[in-house]
Design goal:
Layout lengths: L15 H4 L4 H33 L6 H26 L17 H10 L1 H35 L1 H4 L2 H6 L4 E5 L4 E4 L2 H37 L3 H52 L4 H29 L2 H6 L1 H11 L4 E6 L6 H22 L4 E8 L2 E8 L12 H10 L4 E5 L6 E8 L3
Parallel strand pairs: 3-4
Antiparallel strand pairs: 1-2, 4-5, 5-7, 6-7
């Protein structure tokens, strides 16, 4: 049983507003905006040129494949932009669905490229990113450079009288009057204004990069529909694998348990039949042993049927089923079920087997003295929480049974949250949709 630990929290003595201009994040974001202009020029020029030339050649056959090649080039430039956003902004955007032509030949590829919505979104990014990159580059470079220049004004003020023949920065001047920033108060005020700009610079730059994040995520990543289809395909694979594993478990339990006992029972009854006339006492003893084997086989079949789907869950609902499950646990368990109505049978089954697996983990690994099972409804979700006072230290990310349980819950749009510090206590919460 377990949870994954997050990164260690560092305590800074310097407030975030004061250290932000000197942190690597601010300079990486500034570098992103600085490099956006040349990248945007390349992408805009490529996109406009390709579209214009291909549109002009549409009267011939060359315009269509040229447009497809242009879209492919935009996808390549989009890959560069995703890499740049990942390296400098920490924004990890997945690649869109690749182009899959139906059939062979270059024309099939051209048709698939032209039908790909992701390709047109990349072209749209190449066009829309250019005006924004011009503005963001100009604003960020001006704001950042002016701030640092004014802040460091006392360090380079000496260059004015030495090389320009004036006492300081000239705010205005004409043939008769001129105003320069040259007194100690004016120098300090100028440096103070620069300090304000420098302190505000990282937050201004961060705000500008939010637009870039939105553009990259919205236009260069996979569409929501494609992501959902991929997620459903992955969930379907998980469900199929889980069902196959359950079938293998049932087959193994039948083969090694009830089937083996029934074979032994048939052999024992056959031997008793042979000895019935010549040695009735031995035959009666064999029949008595066979009777005991029948009882054991029936109990194993009941346990197997309960593992597939317990009758008490179907007949009486989740609360009695979990109470019976808690009674069989090796650790004292208190089960509390607070549901306004019975959910769908599939949801009851998921909740039951989730609790069953968690209680098995407690029995095997937790070394707990007491456990609690709470089930309740929260809006359109059903919540299941299992807690124990055991040793803790469980980890759902190391390929354990909890990892498999998390995958099965994810297949039904559920989540598994594990809080299990070393030394305990452990609290595991499962959440999945409510379906009445």
């Amino acid at each position: 049983m377990a949870t994954a630990y997050g990164p260690e929290t560092r305590t800074h003595r310097v407030p975030a507003a004061l250290r932000a201009p000197f942190e690597g994040r601010a300079w990486r974001e500034f570098l992103y905006l600085f490099l956006s202009l040349p990248m945007a020029i390349v992408m805009f020029t490529f996109a406009i040129t390709t579209v214009s030339v291909s549109a002009g050649l549409l009267v011939t056959f060359l315009g269509v494949p040229l447009l497809a090649l242009g879209l492919a080039g935009c996808r390549g430039l989009g890959a560069v932009e995703r890499s740049r956003a990942r390296a400098l902004l920490g924004l990890d955007v997945g690649a869109p669905q690749p182009v899959r032509p139906k059939g062979g030949g270059p024309m099939a590829w051209v048709g698939a490229m032209l039908k790909s919505g992701a390709s047109w979104r990349h072209l749209l990014y190449c066009v829309l990113h250019f005006p924004w990159a011009v503005f963001a580059f100009t604003f960020s470079v001006t704001f950042w450079s002016v701030g640092w220049a004014l802040l460091s004004y006392p360090l380079w003020k000496w260059t004015f009288p030495m090389y320009l023949g004036q006492s300081g920065i000239q705010l205005y001047g004409d043939d008769n009057h001129a105003f320069h920033l040259d007194t100690p108060f004016e120098i300090a005020l100028t440096s103070g204004i620069g300090l304000v700009l420098v302190m505000a610079g990282p937050w201004v730059i961060r705000g500008l990069t939010q637009v870039d994040r939105a553009l990259v995520s919205g236009l260069l990543g996979p569409s929501k529909l494609a992501s959902r289809v991929w997620e459903l395909e992955s969930d379907r694979g998980t469900v199929v694998d889980t069902a196959a594993a359950d079938l293998r478990r049932i087959e193994r339990d039948l083969h090694d348990g009830a089937q083996a006992r029934l074979v032994a029972l048939a052999m024992g009854l056959g031997m008793a039949k042979e000895k019935l006339l010549e040695d009735p006492e031995a035959a009666a003893k064999m029949v008595d042993e066979a009777h005991g084997e029948v009882k054991i086989a029936l109990q194993e079949l009941r346990d197997l049927a309960r593992g597939i789907h317990p009758a008490i869950l179907t007949d009486r609902g989740l609360s009695p089923a979990l109470s019976a499950l808690a009674a069989r646990c090796t650790v004292p368990v208190q089960a509390i079920v607070d549901l306004p109505a019975r959910p769908a049978p599939a949801i009851e089954g998921i909740a039951y087997f989730t609790v069953s697996e968690l209680l098995q983990n407690i029995s095997k690994h937790a070394q707990a003295r007491h456990a609690t099972v709470d089930v309740w409804r929260s809006e359109n979700r059903i919540m299941v929480q299992v807690t124990d006072d055991g040793r803790g230290g469980a980890d759902a990310t190391s390929g354990s049974g909890l990892a498999g349980l998390a995958e099965r819950l994810d297949a039904v749009d559920g989540i598994l949250v594990v809080d299990s510090p070393v030394g305990g206590p452990t609290a595991i919460t499962a959440e999945f949709p409510w379906r009445g």
